[in-house]
Amino acid sequence: MRSLINDPPIKTPPPGVQRKLITGVALIALLIAVGPFLPKWLTFLITMAASHGLVSLGIIFLMRGGVVSFGQGLVFAIGGYVAALAFVKLGFTDAIGLTFIGGLGAALVALPFAPLIARYRGIFFAMLTLALSMVVYGILVKTDVLGGSDGFNMGRPTLFGQQLADILSGYVLYPLTVVISGAVALAARVYFDSPRGLISLAVRDNELRVEYLGASVRQTMAINFVLAAFVGGIGGALTVLSLGHVNPDFSYWTTSGEFVFVAILGGYHSVLAVFVASTVLEIVRSFSGLYFPDTWQLVLGVFLLTVIRFLPHGIGSLWSNRELFKRKGGEK
Amino acid sequence: MSATPSQGSIPVLRATGLEKRFGAVVAATEVCLEVIAGERVSLIGSNGAGKTTFVNMITGYIKPDAGSILLDDRDITGLEPRTINRMGVARSFQIPQLYAELSVLDNMLVATACQDRHPSFWRQARSADAVERALALLARFNLLEHAEQRVAGVPGGIRKLLDIAMALTVQPRLLLLDEPTSGVSVEEKFPMMDIVMHALEQEVMTVLFVEHDMDIVERYADRVVAFYSGRIIANDTPQIALAAPDVRRYVTGTLH
Ligand SMILES: Nc1ncnc2c1ncn2[C@@H]1O[C@H](COP(=O)(O)OP(=O)(O)OP(=O)(O)O)[C@@H](O)[C@H]1O
Ligand SMILES: [Mg+2]
């Protein structure tokens, strides 16, 4: 044991959340700036990648606490249905308002289940969330006023009281989706680096010690579950605004599976990686659908296997916290 | 409150008639113990004697089958570890309970974050202020040079120290150390205890520590409490307790 005097002076580079936020803002600005020059199919692809990415980002909230939800299609569907219903039944048409209502609706649905679900881990957590999403799927399919298995359409939303012409709406919904998804992503980064975010990582690692240090593991898990629902609900609402349509498949297990795919692909260390992964999925989906329509899941599978083999912490490990990923041999 | 009694006589901890059975195993029976503020008490006993069980009952991990535990004058029997921790009782573990995936510094910052009754959703966990306090505590345990290392990769002795350093973030009034020097080589035991005791000296704190090495016990304890199959068989100054026939027969093995 060395004496204090001999210790090298410690330089702690505060891992700059500012730097990450600035990068994020720059990226959002760039995406908006290039928007008008992109082909329509590409802006639509990015719109889908960003809004779907939010649902996977919700899974990251949970993954950082050590659990994975296989039923995140549930909050995606609730967000979508609530926004579409507010539009169709209440005549509320503001795009930003609808997005917020979608998120809030999903969070409110998740709230009563949170204390129960917070008690489960591993496969039980995954199966419980999956079961919930499939129950909702079943209800939606059987509910005729909501269009049954066909779902229903909604019209064009307004923005700041302005009617969006059909041709214009794609160009407005793209930057809107990018800005809202971006803002949520930045907020997620701030949360991940906050005391509560750090406690989540601690729960993932050693629950006993978290309790022995005076924090509540259950409360941490419950909060993450509700936040994940809020974020996923926003994603659902944004998706429906752009598609103009919602149906029960939003809550189907294969949809949830894609969100998990993206979350694992991105890894839980980087927020940006989740959106990169989401974009990868959308690209593979559109191109494989074009060239090998029957085997595109196969392409996805091979892709995921490759990433898990070579980047076990997700593609985010390509650029974030490198030193922490280096496995120092020996103990563990 | 009564008129201020002389400082050394306030019992911080008063355990009465604790009983704990695991099936046929008696892990605690008729356990009574009072600890005075500022005391350094060593808990000794052979393997399976009930030392960890006692620590577990005080800190809320195990609920006693019978008996009561008072902290100052408040009944803490059967409360959650989290609640007891918030009342100023902290502990370290026989096997360090750390966050292996995080750095040594981040382990300390988790401890800091957990202390907050309402941790923030948006302030930075690695704020300059929190980092500075964490580093100051790490410095007291000579752990500064390991601050940036991932816990999974640091040696056992470092983990033991970190485990104790984390417990100190609460600024506890009562600290329970379960075998602080276990798993450390014989030559390192004294330097390690020196670091721990030196770090603790800076706060007026009551300390209970479980220990197998009698040289360490004699050197650092004001009082020795010896356990044998769940029962307290001696409770006295180190000189007297370690000389008692029962202790020499059942604990130190110096009398056959
Ligand atoms: N959670 C448990 N479930 C079942 N038996 C237990 C449990 N905890 C302790 N015991 C048993 O109670 C007895 C006392 O165990 P305890 O861990 O308190 O011993 P100890 O004095 O700390 O021993 P050591 O020096 O080996 O750490 C042992 O026989 C042990 O097997
Ligand atoms: Mg023990």
What structural keywords apply?
heterodimer; A: 332 residues; mainly alpha; two-stranded antiparallel ribbon; two-stranded antiparallel sheet; 14 helices; 4 strands; 68% helix; disordered N terminus; B: 256 residues; alpha/beta; Rossmann fold; 2 domains; 4-stranded antiparallel β-sheet; 24% strand; globular; binds adenosine-5'-triphosphate; binds magnesium ion
Structural account:
- The complex is a heterodimer of chains A (332) and B (256).
- Chain A is mostly helical and 332 residues long.
- In chain A, 68% of the residues lie in helices and 2% in strands.
- In chain A, a hairpin with a 2-residue loop joins strand 2 (158-159) and strand 3 (162-163).
- In chain A, helix 3 (73-90) crosses helix 10 (217-243), helix 4 (95-110) runs antiparallel to helix 10 and helix 8 (195-205) packs across helix 10.
- Chain A is globular and about 60 Å long.
- The two termini of chain A are 23 Å apart.
- The relative contact order of chain A is 0.18.
- Chain B is α/β, with parallel strands linked by helices and 256 residues long.
- Chain B folds into 2 domains: 1-88 and 172-256, Rossmann fold (3-Layer(aba) Sandwich); 97-171, no CATH class.
- In chain B, 34% of the residues lie in helices and 24% in strands.
- In chain B, the strands form 2 sheets. Chain B has a 6-stranded mixed sheet. In chain B, strands 2-1-4-5 form a 4-stranded antiparallel sheet, with helices on one face.
- The chains are: A mainly alpha (332), B alpha/beta (256).
- Bound molecules: adenosine-5'-triphosphate and magnesium ion.
- Magnesium ion binds next to helix 1 of chain B.
- Adenosine-5'-triphosphate binds at residues 22, 25, 27, 45, 47-53, 94 of chain B.
Summary?
The complex is a heterodimer of chains A (332) and B (256). Chain A is mostly helical.
C-alpha termini separation of chain B: 50 Å
Poorly predicted ranges of chain B (pLDDT <50, ≥5 residues)?
Answer: 1-6
Percentage of β-strand residues of chain B: 15-25%
Number of domains of chain B: 2
Order of helices and strands of chain A: HHHHHHEEEHHHHEHHHH
Helical content of chain B (DSSP H or I, runs of 4+)? 25-40%
Q: Strands of the biggest beta sheet of chain B: in what spatial order?
A: 6-7-8-3-9-10
